[in-house]
Amino acid sequence: MKAALDYCAKSLREAGVDKFQCALTEAKQYEMNLEGTEFTLIRTTMNNTLGITVIKDNRKGDISLNRLDEAAIDAAIKTVMELLNTSQQDPDYDISPKQDPQQFVAGPQEPDTERMYALLKEYSGQVPAIFPAIRLMETTLVYSHAVQHFINSNGVDFVTTQGVYTLSSVFSSKDGGKTTSFNYTGFAMQDLEQALLERASLKQLLHQSVEHLEARPLQGKFVGDVIITPDCLHDFIYFYTMTFLGDRALIAGTSPLKDKLGQQVANAKLTLAARPVSAEIADGYFVTGDGFAAENVTFIDKGVLKSFLLSQYGSQKTKMERAKNSGGCWVIEPGAKPVDEMIKDVKRGILFARFSGGGPSPNGDFSGVAKNSYYIEDGKIMYPVTETMVSGNLADLFKNIEEISSERIDYGLTILPYIHASGVTISGK
């Protein structure tokens, strides 16, 4: 692995590039699959990937390859040098500056395959016993181990060794002639101590899927409240950060928050951080895509915008500070009120469990279907709903937060609460 990386660096210098970076990843996966409740796949896979970025004469080229022999590396470098000729010149292309060499280690370094099998077998038996109407579609439990060696021509040298377990499960419900749409969840973990049903929101989502056998259309259109579940909240954080805080929006100047750094942009109850190097995140990261050692960052602190989510390129383009990480690994600080009490405060609205729709417009307007959701009236959950549209504006949504729950759900990738927000348009039939 190191020999291939050294050869790549030597060859790039001989090719006469101005700057380069190389990321070599050696990955191994142990995977177990269920289709329905039956084991259909148990396998081990190994994969090596070498990513190369070169800059010459303010032109940039990228290439990735899976073979690590000298002939394959030579061919890749020849191709990426040719790509430079068609690349647009941009003086803001760059690589990370020299940093102290570091080695990072996280997570389990060997899989417990017997425990993986036992947990999946237990899950395949528990679900039909507890939820007879549930139809498991596909469930996958994976142990992943990766060693990544990142270098660049400025002398950066980072090695990350990381192991993690991940689960994904897709399911629906059926009872006689009644069926539901599919639902799904996934989470990451560093240990296998708990039963799968006790992790994240899995058991709750299975229960809700059964309840949605009795879903019915919501009637009418009104402006009301939403209780956004942690499963749904991840989508809205992604939309918010990409639409308002990311490279594209800030370089184009379309973000309504472009001049709001240090100002109140959300309710003071909201504190949003990305914590990739925190022990509380099971599947984080230590090196950004730009080649910087990652740090934990609070993007919104008690409603005040503290940082944009700018890459090195975005930073140089906008002349604003680079974010100290690449986002993701989102953590929202808990509030003071349990979700059951939050629901009691809703005059009319929905428990918003999954969003199905396209990305928002540059100004933050969004519209889509509320899946697996419930109608709330006078502080009570009345019934599960179907054919319900939700629309609003992301900036307004975050400003109109009424409460944040004391409970949070740990997905290994994120740790998120329920959020109560007002002023959302809800449309039924």
Labels describing this entry:
2 domains, 429 residues, eight-stranded mixed sheet, 22 strands, PmbA/TldD fold, ten-stranded mixed sheet, 9 helices, alpha+beta
Q: How many β-strand stretches?
A: 22
State the separation between the terminal residues, measured CA to CA.
59 Å
Structural class: alpha+beta
- DSSP helix count? 9
What is the CATH third-level topology name of the largest domain? PmbA/TldD fold
Number of domains: 2
Helix content: 10-25%
Radius of gyration: 24 Å
Give the overall shape: globular
Largest sheet: 10 strands, mixed
Estimate what percentage of residues fall within beta strands: 35-45%
Poorly predicted regions: none
Mean pLDDT: 96
Named at the architecture level, the CATH assignment of the largest domain is 2-Layer Sandwich
**CATH class category of the largest domain:** Alpha Beta
CATH superfamily of the largest domain: PmbA/TldD superfamily
Structural account:
23% of the residues lie in helices and 40% in strands. The chain is α+β, with helices and mostly antiparallel strands and 429 residues long. It has two domains: 2-213, PmbA/TldD superfamily (PmbA/TldD fold), CATH 3.30.2290.10; 221-427, no CATH class. Strands 9, 10, 15, 16, 17, 18, 19, 20, 21 and 22 form a ten-stranded mixed sheet that branches. A hairpin with a 2-residue loop joins strand 18 (373-377) and strand 19 (380-386). Helix 1 packs parallel to helix 2. The mean pLDDT is 96.
